Amino acid sequence: MENKASVSVIMSEFNTDIKKLDTSIKSILEQTFTDFELIIVDDCGNNDLFEFTKKYDDSRIKVLKNKENRGLSYSLNKAIKYSEGAYLVRMDTDDYAYPDRISTLYNFIKRHQQFSVVSSRAMEVGNGKNMGILGKAGEKNSKSILSGDVPIHPACIFEKKAIQTVGGYKEIKRAEDFALWCDLLLYGFKIYVIDDILLDYTVDDEDYSKRKLSNRAESIKAKLYYNRKLNGGKTGYFRVIKSVISGILPVSIVKLYKKKFVLKNGNKYE
Fold it and tell me: Angle of helix 217-229 relative to helix 176-186, nearest 10 degrees?
């Protein structure tokens, strides 16, 4: 009987630039940790993933295709459903994982089994330049999460049974990761961010345009909901107001604020 992989790396792909996609996949296949499967869900974009991944000739790659475009949450839940590893590693299709990323995360979460989610910090990269470091090391509680001090979603390793216990990802546009952190805390699971920087996290101008108020309705509703559930009080509501303001401001102002304050202090900008 074939042994199951210890780790399942899960990705969702939709119209990723081919060069970035190639770099991302290679960075996983070239990890020092090898006991994994790589599940890529084709969310019905223009790239033919079945054909594209043939060139790697790597049996660890598994491609699943949605019947229609369903979005990130649905695709990740599908990947989890078909995964065989006890641990899940998130990866975005335009990011770059450092060679010892999986090894470092896996060894940490195995040694510290009180944590169900472990994230590294990440280097934000935009237009080929390093923009600054994302994430603050340490355990994350409800106060942390509601204030925006959160794990970097594509830099995480998860205990699969914990994700399954909370019902997986909720289909909330631009807030599926925030909702997951909150659900995990509500169930009593623990979250931690290590100090290591193990991922290049890609952000381009299109990402900023998606942060406009017109795209934030579901995110704002989620923040209001979980602020009540986690007893966030006035501080949490202030964070919601901040999110509304940043959705109204011109993209150039938001980018300047992020550069001057957010990245300088090692926070994740939502």
Answer: 10
Q: Radius of gyration over alpha carbons of the chain, in Å?
A: 18
Q: What are phi and psi of 63, to 5 degrees?
A: -105, 130
Angle at the Cα of 266 from the Cα atoms of 259 and 210, rounded to 5 degrees: 55
- State CA 214 to chain mean position distance: 22
Neighbours of 10 (CB within 10 A): 25
Q: How many CA atoms lie within 13 A of 164 on its CB side?
A: 14
Contacts by residues 104-112 (CB-CB < 8 Å, ≥ 24 positions apart): 104/194, 104/196, 104/198, 105/156, 105/157, 105/194, 105/198, 106/6, 106/7, 106/33, 106/157, 108/194, 109/157, 109/159, 112/192
pLDDT in tens, 157-188: 999 999 999 999 999 988 999 999 999 999 99
Give the number of C-alpha atoms closer than 13 A to the C-alpha of residue 136, restricted to the C-beta side.
17
How far apart are alpha carbons 162 and 145 in whole angstroms?
A: 18
260 burial (CB, 10 Å; 0-12 / 13-18 / 19+) is exposed
Q: How far apart are CA 201 and CA 219, in angstroms?
A: 21
Whether 6 contacts 86, CB under 8 Å? yes
Stated pTM of the model: 0.89
- Asked if 15 and 31 touch (Cβ cutoff 8 Å), the reply is no
Q: Using the predicted structure, report yes or no on whether residue 73 has a pLDDT greater than 60.
A: yes
Token digits for 99? 């060679």
Q: Which of 6, 18, 2 is nearest to 157 (CA)?
A: 6
Take residue 196 and report the two structure tokens written for it.
């290591």
- Averaged over 233-257, what is the pLDDT? 64
Strands 7-13 and 87-90: parallel
